[in-house]
Specification:
0% strand, mainly alpha, 7 helices
């Protein structure tokens, strides 16, 4: 069973409603316009709440920030395209094993990104936006953890 099934469901009873996808896309468009600040805020927050993750980043942080923004843009662009997004997320998760990313780091990443969006967008990141992003990030983390850390996930 695909963990992303509710992201990609086309019926009106799907867990992630089309309106949530629209909210994620709209808020992303605003946040991505400030991509340099987005990356700076995100990594600053991540290293504050999960300082052990700092050693995972050996590259130039400007380059890393551009990779972050490009990856998020890809995810948002493909929210409705399971055939593209799911294998890419699985591949990304497996590549992250080379950097010693642990299953528990995904929660810190989500927390840091939600905080960053709130900082960047202010009142534009309301409760509906937070809920839509939380849903999206949980689904993304779920499939990545299942791919890279299957020992931490339960069978459906």
């Amino acid at each position: 069973m695909r963990l992303f099934k509710y992201l990609f469901a086309s019926d009106t009873n799907c867990q992630m409603e089309r309106s949530s996808k629209v909210i994620v896309r709209e808020t992303w468009a605003k946040a991505a316009a400030a991509h340099v600040d987005l990356a700076r805020l995100f990594y600053g927050r991540l290293f504050t709440i999960a300082p052990e993750t700092r050693v995972l980043f050996k590259n130039d942080m400007d380059v890393q920030g551009r990779k972050l923004v490009a990856t998020l843009a890809f995810v948002i662009d493909n929210l409705s395209n399971e055939e593209t997004l799911a294998p890419a997320a699985e591949d990304l998760a497996l590549r992250h094993l080379e950097y010693n990313v642990k299953a528990e780091h995904y929660g810190a990443v989500a927390e840091a990104l939600l905080w960053t969006l709130d900082e960047l967008l202010g009142s534009g990141f309301d409760e509906d936006a937070k809920a839509a992003w939380t849903e999206t990030l949980n689904a993304l983390a779920g499939i990545m953890i299942a791919a890279a850390h299957p020992e931490t996930t339960q069978a459906d």
